[in-house]
Amino acid sequence: MADSLPASPHASSAAPDTASPAQPASRVREVTTRSLSQFSDTKHLVTVMMDAITAHKSLYELGGVLHGDINNNTIIILDSPDGETRGALVDFDLPYSMPATRKIGDPDPVGPPPQRNRPYYWRAPGL
């Protein structure tokens, strides 16, 4: 049953999670990372960039967080053993919490609080 579970914790599955505590469901995927500068061709670069844009959009819409520092060093290429290549965002040292950022317009402004339990990387759900 663990093999039929989605690789992403954000992807939905019609089947309930029936893994026992002794044998938890595996949601970890083995990937190899590469720098954004190591793209193979223009189509590959555009695909990786679209994945990063989609990941940023879902991070904002699902988590209410803006990355805060997107550049060529914070977008990486993920290569899985099955040959699938995706883009992802890393380095969440400067995220902005949108609810806290909205308070900046208040008479008593409060800066965004530090984000705890930041993900190592973020990719769009279902990718």
Automatic annotation (TrEMBL):
Native organism: Lentinus brumalis
Record protein name field: Fungal-type protein kinase domain-containing protein
Family matches, as Pfam families: Pkinase_fungal
Domain Fungal-type protein kinase: 33-102
Disordered: annotated segments: 1-35, 100-127
Matches recorded under InterPro entries: Pkinase_fungal (IPR040976)
Low complexity composition bias: residue spans: 1-26
